[in-house]
């Protein structure tokens, strides 16, 4: 990891995670327990948490899920931009390759920074 990556990642973590990390973990636990399922009619990969739930993801408080044979990839967005650009924290199945997340099928991530066990900061 380059020094600039460390600084950029720390800024993102400082801005986005201190408020939401407990809520992010709670949402992930609910998903893993089967309490959350995709619920957006036009996109089978989205779980809209809505306004009543704590904000854990940019762009409408929805998380992106990718269910695979390895397990479930879950993306919590920190930003959404034009032309399908996004940044966020990706939780991967234990030991899985973050590059296999379906959002990277057409184009590899422009940033892929390990954050914690099975967590990555990603940008596309």
Structure notes:
- By secondary structure, the protein is α+β, with helices and mostly antiparallel strands.
- The protein has one domain.
- Helices cover 27% and strands 28% of the residues.
- It contains two helices and six strands.
- It has helices at residues 3-32, 58-61, and strands at 46-48, 62-67, 72-80, 86-91, 111-116, 119-123.
- It has a six-stranded antiparallel beta sheet.
- Strand 5 (111-116) and strand 6 (119-123) form a beta hairpin.
- The longest helix is centred in the first third of the chain and has 30 residues, at 3-32.
Summary?
Helices cover 27% and strands 28% of the residues. The protein is an alpha+beta fold and 124 residues long.
Largest β-sheet summary = 6 strands, antiparallel
N-to-C SSE string, H for helix and E for strand: HEHEEEEE
Count of domain modules:
1
Structural class estimated from helices and strands: alpha+beta
How many strand segments?
6
- Residue stretches low in confidence (pLDDT < 50, at least 5 long) are none
Q: Helical proportion?
A: 25-40%
- Average pLDDT number: 84
Annotation field: number of helices? 2
- Rg, rounded, reads 14 Å
What is the strand content? 25-35%
Strand order of the largest sheet: 1-2-3-4-6-5
Assembly classification: single chain
């Amino acid at each position: 990891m380059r020094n600039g990556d460390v600084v950029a990642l720390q800024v993102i973590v400082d801005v986005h995670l201190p408020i939401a990390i407990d809520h992010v973990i709670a949402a992930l636990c609910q998903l893993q327990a089967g309490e959350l399922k995709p619920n957006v009619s036009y996109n089978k990969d989205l779980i809209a948490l809505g306004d009543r739930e704590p904000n854990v993801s940019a762009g409408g408080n929805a998380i992106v899920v990718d269910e695979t044979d390895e397990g479930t990839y879950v993306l919590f967005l920190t930003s959404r931009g034009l032309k399908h650009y996004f940044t966020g924290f990706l939780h991967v199945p234990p030991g899985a390759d973050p590059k296999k997340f379906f959002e990277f099928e057409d184009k590899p991530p422009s940033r892929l920074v390990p954050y914690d066990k099975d967590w990555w900061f990603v940008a596309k």
